[in-house]
Specification:
Elements lengths: L2 E8 L5 H9 L2 E7 L5 E6 L4 H4 L6 E6 L2 E12 L6 E8 L6 E10 L3 H4 L3 E3 L4 E6 L8 E4 L8 E3 L9 E2 L6 E6 L10 H19 L1
Parallel strand pairs: 1-4, 2-6, 7-10
Antiparallel strand pairs: 1-3, 2-3, 4-5, 5-6, 7-9, 8-13, 9-12, 11-13
């Protein structure tokens, strides 16, 4: 998984007055959990742009006064009026310790059901997985090239040895449902054959 570097400085004071002063200066108070003890630091608000305002998922390399710590975003708080970032929590990563993250799902292929007029329902655009940091994927690929009308893709179709899905096996990721204008989910040859058989039966009955 790709990583974004955020440079910050340790916070000597974590009181309300110091926190307000940081925010007024365009800085965001942050905490890294998961280590021996929480680490309080601050970083420029602009440093979080690529980490927060994106559909992609990244790990973070936190550089605090020269000390680098690998982490993932755990929680973020926004101002209720201005939507500015006012606090960020991180969780420290360790090479030998599994972590849980929400990973985006990327659809591949073309669904024959959609081509026949079906409606694609992408119900789970992100899936929660558990893995060692080195095995965290940038995205989960879901092949929809075999989905006909009425078919669905569930978690069991996406199993991977590198990570474990934190969802029930029957969780639906994507499905193709019948729409008002959908044609019967038959191939062209099957549809033509059915029509010809019907015509033949009608002729015989007339005779």
């Amino acid at each position: 998984m790709k990583s974004i570097t955020i440079k910050g400085s340790k916070r000597e004071s974590v009181g309300k007055v110091a926190t307000k002063a940081l925010r007024n200066a365009g800085m965001v108070p942050c905490v890294i959990y998961g280590g021996d003890k929480p680490m309080h630091f601050s970083a420029p608000e602009l440093a979080f742009k690529k980490l927060v305002y994106t559909p992609n998922v990244y790990t973070a390399t936190i550089n605090v006064d020269g000390q680098e710590i690998a982490a993932i975003l755990q929680d973020i708080q926004f101002h209720p009026v201005t939507d500015r970032i006012i606090h960020v929590d991180f969780y420290q990563l360790f090479d030998d310790k599994e972590v849980t993250m929400n990973i985006p799902v990327k659809l591949t292929g073309t669904s024959p059901g959609v081509l026949n007029g079906g409606s694609l329902r992408f119900t789970n655009r992100k899936l929660k997985v558990k893995a060692l940091p080195a095995n965290l994927p940038d995205f989960i690929s879901a092949d929809i090239s075999k989905l006909k009308i009425g078919h669905k893709l569930v978690i069991t179709s996406l199993f991977n040895d590198d990570y474990t899905f934190m969802h029930p096996d029957n969780t639906v990721v994507v499905q193709v449902r019948t729409s008002r204008n959908a044609s019967a989910d038959l191939g062209d040859d099957e549809e033509e054959e059915t029509t010809e058989e019907g015509a033949a039966e009608e002729t015989t009955a007339t005779e």
